[in-house]
Design a protein that fits this description.
single chain, 131 residues, alpha+beta, three-stranded antiparallel β-sheet, two-stranded antiparallel sheet, 4 helices, 44% helix
């Protein structure tokens, strides 16, 4: 069974990979759901399928961001740790991509401020460890 510290680590690993690979804003990351992910067949034939994440950025502009395999692997691990299907397209529509560690009255969605706090705490701890 996965404990609270384990799921925190798995979630943080996914968040860091996602942020680094996509360069998206915190608000875009926390508003994303599993139904924002689509799978498209590769037209060139180099890879069997490509995952894309449809996001709404500044000015509510829609764009598709490719998800590298490293992000997809972390996402699958994170979904499994949450007790969900490892395949995002098989999850219930509206499932937050980045969720709280436990459900509250407001649901499972994380706020941009909470994500900022999580990342700040992580980077502060890394800075303290290297000082």
């Amino acid at each position: 069974m996965i404990g609270p510290s384990d799921i925190r680590t798995i979630r943080l690993r996914f968040i860091l990979r996602l942020a680094y690979s996509t360069g998206l804003r915190l608000s875009g990351m926390v508003s994303a759901t599993t139904d924002n992910i689509t799978i498209e067949e590769d037209l060139v034939g180099n890879i069997p399928e490509a995952y894309f994440w449809t996001v709404f950025g500044k000015g509510n502009e829609q764009r598709s961001v490719p998800l590298p395999s490293s992000v997809r692997e972390c996402l699958s691990d994170y979904l499994l740790a949450r007790g969900l299907n490892s395949e995002p397209t098989a999850c219930e529509p509206g499932t937050p991509l980045i969720a709280k560690l436990y459900q509250t009255k407001q649901g499972w969605s994380l706020t941009p401020a909470a994500l900022y706090h999580t990342l700040s705490k992580f980077f502060r701890s890394r800075g303290d460890a290297t000082a």
